[in-house]
């Protein structure tokens, strides 16, 4: 009972942190959409073109590798269990607000990625140097863009604690619950498996993390989408009714669910932000690792990754549940407005029930494996984020002891997360993510002028038919040392070549 009460307390704190964020994310997304003239819609061809570029300079990741690494953190169990939570608390209408948040709010992701590229640094860490990666992200653009190093350090500390010692527990908790339902395994059994696998990869360093995620994520995403489409196709006669239900619930005119339209908005936005990491700064570290010629390019790539996660993976999950009727809706007072699957706890189990409408008895096993693999790649991305924040705090120092603490701590929470109360784990994770999001969003408001400069420079060069190249000095942007060094190297190379030709 004591644990349950504590979980309830954390849930109320989480709600207080996240409730107003719905309006902040949407407002900031609208502001950036207006400032960039709807770049998320106009520049889709550029997004696809950038993903085809495999050349990434003298080091760093390609744009595609950075996209996959970002998707690894985004397409986790939040895209499965998190969507179910949104439908449970806000009704099917939450899906509409998830989609709207994805479409409008993805410009926040554009801003994060562009800033991460603009203020990234060359790597001092030996492991990252071997992988030929650059480093940057949220703490870096706060320190060098806003000139607030102490705030950058606070964010980095929160990032190390959250992504290294808390958030991995969310993934494993869902993995364990799915395995228990599918295979009647005790929760500690999959935890041991995942702990061992995570240990084998993270001990191998950054290069191994990137290679594993690059191989797994595309296969998982495509396979999951095909399965969702198959479930929807089996229930195709119910699609029109489901679509009407979703939109009526979203705008508050459904006879049963109309009273929770406010919850549909709040939970739709909340889960869209959680699943896509939009505004959380989570994908900024992968964005900074890419080697490209202009920050605006990587901003577009990260925008596209949000489309994949929210508009494809999350929507496929939600439609699969609603079309098959395998969902419940809470009345907020311990009862249900809709109780289609009595006794089935909210989360990945609902997706299992939906898949069973296609092939009875097959859903539990498939979802358990899918959650395991999605969760595993997400855990790798979490470690990458935690490690990047730690490197910011070390500021060039070796810090071998701290790095080992992070590796051991990550493996420990991966195991512990499987046996902790699920509600407690999710509430703690939501609080941590919410705190990081608030700091990041406030910083993105003050960094608005810099994002607009980067955007305008990209647009100007594109209209001239050029392949955009970033020169921060020409734009009056200070603190972009990486790019200033690149410009000096390019100038020196041109001078040398000219002299050679004269001789």
Which regions have little confidence, pLDDT < 50, spanning 5+ residues?
none
Helix content: over 70%
How would the global form be characterised?
A: globular
Structural class: mainly alpha
- Count, helices: 24
How would you sum up this structure, described in words?
This protein has 503 residues and is mainly α. The protein is 74% helix and 2% strand. It is built from 24 helices and four strands. The strands form two sheets. It has a two-stranded antiparallel ribbon. Strands 3-4 form a two-stranded antiparallel sheet. A hairpin with a 5-residue loop joins strand 3 and strand 4. The mean pLDDT is 86.
Quick tags:
503 residues, two-stranded antiparallel ribbon, mainly alpha
Write the layout of secondary structure elements.
Blueprint: H1 2-18, H2 21-35, H3 39-42, H4 44-52, H5 63-74, H6 81-90, H7 94-118, E1 121-122, H8 126-130, E2 134-135, H9 138-145, H10 149-165, H11 168-183, H12 188-202, H13 206-234, H14 239-251, H15 261-276, H16 284-289, H17 295-324, E3 328-330, E4 336-339, H18 348-356, H19 363-394, H20 400-416, H21 422-446, H22 448-463, H23 472-475, H24 481-502
Antiparallel strand pairs: 1-2, 3-4
Helix pairs in contact: 1-21, 2-7, 2-15, 2-21, 4-17, 5-13, 5-17, 5-19, 6-15, 7-9, 7-14, 7-15, 7-17, 7-22, 9-10, 10-19, 10-20, 10-21, 11-12, 11-19, 11-20, 11-21, 12-19, 12-20, 13-17, 13-19, 17-18, 18-19, 19-20
